[in-house]
Design a protein that fits this description.
86 residues
Length: 86
């Protein structure tokens, strides 16, 4: 079973869309295709490896950001519900 953080990160929560808008995604892919068409052989292979590495790093950092935001929100909720000092 996936955690709520993973589901939020992947945009799999019903009624909430966390996916990149199609126009932004298409623009990014068109730039990728244009750059890739200028390269041949080893350069193209290195460019693909670079793009894969950047994508994985980006996904890792975004997932970490979601986790920190979720934990922060949870801790704030606990602090607000603390009635010990009342």
């Amino acid at each position: 079973m996936q955690s709520i953080i993973e589901l939020l990160y992947k945009g799999d929560i019903r009624g909430v869309s966390l996916k990149l808008p199609a126009d932004r995604r298409d623009k990014e892919l068109s730039y990728y295709d244009k750059i890739k068409s200028l390269m041949t052989g080893e350069n193209a292979k290195l460019f693909d490896e670079y793009a894969d590495t950047v994508a994985l790093n980006y996904e890792f950092l975004i997932e970490r950001a979601y986790a920190v935001a979720f934990k922060t929100g949870f801790l704030l909720g606990l602090e607000m519900a603390d009635t010990e000092e009342i």
